[in-house]
Design goal:
This protein has 4 helices and 12 strands, in the order ββαββββββαββαββα. By secondary structure, the chain is α+β, with helices and mostly antiparallel strands. Strands 1, 2, 3, 4, 5, 6, 7, 8, 9, 10, 11 and 12 form a 12-stranded mixed beta sheet that branches. The longest helix is centred in the C-terminal third of the chain and has 17 residues. It is globular and about 50 Å long. 29% of the residues are buried. About 6% of the residues have low confidence.
Length: 231
Amino acid sequence: MAIRIFETDPDAKPKATFSDDTVGRFHGGKQENGIPVALSEWRVTTGDPEVADAVAQLMGGQAVETDSTSENFIEVLTTTNKVKVVLSGPDAISSDLKLWNGPSLIHHCDGVEFLSPDEDRGKPCRCPELMEDRKAAAKAKRGPAPSISVTFRLAEDYDLGIFRLQTGSWKLAEVLHEVENALNKVGGEALATLELELVEYTTKKGRDVSYRKPVIRVLKSWSDAIAEPTF
């Protein structure tokens, strides 16, 4: 279920979060000296050297061990900003809104109702109705921001395992319902592209702005794709 930006289904209930059964994770950035840095190509982390090598062969780059204390301690800075993936269906996407105070989760909702703690679940969260107002509140640390999880397989190496993209992108949150509608139409596993798309524009004050946003485009049924000579 996408974040409930517009109240169209009062009976909608949030889906459960995914268990961490992935072989690797996709990232649109990294930390350098504690400072977040955006990347123009996908960065993939994993704890499995064979997975890292396979990703490097498919997406370019080299597998490098890092000093991270997490289980995903091998990273591949790929040379690819677009990759074909296989999504299991709408259940491959989970999203909600969260506000953290250090390690503590102090606000957790779907944009209309609280999802936690248990004593508040189902109560109105009183978040602003409009997306721009929600973004402004999150920027001021007065409201929650998107927490989106997408699980998928690589179309060119389906059996390699399931990967995850975790992102707080507002741009993806705005169109997530469209992705889920497309997946519903497919009705099963779907071939899609996962891209770090370049966005460029000039502000009213004449300042040039550019950044990358994660984009998911559903192409066709996976069964139809594998029945063709190439996809």
